[in-house]
Amino acid sequence: MAAGGMAEEALAAQLEAAAWAEFTADSFAVAGNLFLRSAELTPAGGPAARRLVNAAKSIRLSGGVGESYELLCRVLTLTDDPELTRAVRHSMYRISMWRAPTVAGRDALLRLAEEAASVDPGQAIAMLADAALASVEIGDLARARQVSERAIQLTSADRRQPPLGVVGIRAMVLGLCGEAVNVRALLDPRTAEIAAIDPLGSEMADQLSLVISLARLCSEDTDRAAELLERAVAGARERSARRAGRVGTATARWVYLWRGRWSAARASAHEALQLVESTGWANERPSSLATLARIEAVMGLAEECRQHVAESVEGAERMGGRPYIAYAHAALGLLELTQGRYLSAIENLLVLDDLAQDSGLHDTPVLWWSSDLIEAYSHYGLPDEAHRVLVRLERSVADHPIPTAAAVAARSRALLEPENALEHLSQALDWHARAPMPFEEARTRLFLGSVLRRRRQRAESRPHLQASLATFERLGAPDWAARARAELQASGVRQRASEQPVAGFSALTNQELQVALTVARGLSNRQVADQMFLSIKTVEFHLSHVYDKLGIHRRSQLIMLAAAQGQPDVARGDAAR
Predict the structure, then answer these.
(1) 469 & 570 share domain
(2) Does residue 374 or residue 241 have the better pLDDT?
(3) How many CB atoms lie within 10 A of CB 569?
């Protein structure tokens, strides 16, 4: 190497060292630029390709997904190393699939994995894991099962314990297929290893936290799902707001929705939407919109729900995300059921039901529809169709009991067999006691109270109706609360003026809600502004509207109200004063 080349390489090496320091500090944009400059200064025959790979990874983590893909294309023109070429092609397929997953892209990655299997099984396993995740995004659960099983087999061939990442993906796939028992069999023996995950230790650890949280949620192990998730979010908030978005918003909205923390779920979904543009992960948008629409459906925000369903479907159709299209329609179906438009509810819920029958998807806390479809069929006068869906739901919970699924199956059986309704509803409450899901339990108690009242057992009906009303009001479900209130009145209870519902978090705009919940964690206005990328004056403006709408005057009152409504991460002690 000539003297000039040696000097350039020395400078390139210094820039590379500086880039690694920035990367370690999560300054990904700065690291990417330094890696890129280092690669440009690398003399012919030097490690330019490797430095470009590191630049591409850094820039992708900073949100420059398109630029990262272009850099990887450049790498392929600079190297003929088979191992590096496979790794770069893997990264390119991964970016393509997470921006807009397609069957063609997934199948190309599978072919690449088979090429790598004989020379580098570890690399092949990582490719198969990504292909399994892409299959889930596409809605091809049968292929996801096959591919995740193939990844397990490759590790078994070397007599090794399967990597936790592969086990987590396999568990998530089985969870979506309703196999709760098999999810626990895979994850429970690895409990200590899961507890040791540092969600921000690496990009793969970030993804692993998400996958295992989803698997736990699918089996309705919400405590462990929430524990891993909240640990991930807490660490992310300390280190990097952008990475917090990728960890926290990915799973938080589902966990919070299921556990009855609807305001937090709504804020989480809205936060994800704000982060889509900066991260470049297009598949987040329809998913977040569909979840937001479901929250709005039960909160009585009909106009917002319909708008977000339309936007979710449009985005999902563009990227080929059939599950998100179905989930959005299920949200609209729930809204229509709530408002008594049963034929429209059936039409929308059938979109998800058709996907389930095609793919093997089952009711889980991630995707949930059968009990709503049964109720819509029943009210519309189609008991045979309702019975068909119920038989399938009962068969699923018989093989792999998920408590809330078993509870709503019993409630649905009560709907179709009114002569045995009390027996079935008693069984439903027994199942609800095993794994609390406030909204569905309140629906069961509302139904039970209604049955008792119609049988002239008014005194016995009131505790169930009062409990359901209290839950619906706490959650912020006005349409359902109105039903419970009407049943209570029919049972002989007269509501005093002081008992009328007051405005809650559902009255806030999305931005106001985010500010309110962040303040309720005990953060100062400055800290809220930094975390949400707002000015302090904007935070103060939103907070004044929050106080007006909630009828409060101090931060301590906001914190107390958030705690009363079951919001997560509420401040305690001195922070509340």
Answers:
(1) no
(2) 374
(3) 16
